[in-house]
Amino acid sequence: MPRRHTAPRDVLLAAGELLAWWAGLAVLWLVLVTTVDTLERIVGASCAAVGALLARAGRRAVTWR
Length: 65
Description:
- The protein has helices at residues 8-32, 38-63.
- With 65 residues, the protein is mainly α.
């Protein structure tokens, strides 16, 4: 089976989409939380990253891209 190569443009688009999802989810978390300390920032950033990965995977599953 031939190996499929990913174009650099596709990698940048995927990274941009993940960053956009992460930023949106992180801002939403900041709006909803009242006090922010270091541990809460780490947990919020981690949850936003997981949410961004799931959002991208869900969008790809629906659009078949």
